[in-house]
Design a protein that fits this description.
alpha+beta, three-stranded antiparallel sheet, single chain, Arc Repressor Mutant, subunit A, 3 helices
Amino acid sequence: MEKISLDNDRRAVIVDGEELTLTFKEYELLQYLMLNKEIVLARSKIMDAVWGYDFEVESRTLDMHIRSLRQKLGVAGENIKTIRNVGYKLGE
């Protein structure tokens, strides 16, 4: 797994020594996934934790943010796994 580090004081993301620029919600999403590493998280649970509302409201919001986050993380983004019909997890 590529090394991903969060600097919460500066809200910075470092991947293999390189600092990345993420949006506020991308950072919040990555932070939540990292706090729950290797745990399969239901889409509704992620939406509630990061956006503060139930997933049913905006079905594509989470998918769009996951896609963007994967792209920005590069190879490290491959560690965000889609768990079909459930949600996502960070880890192998």
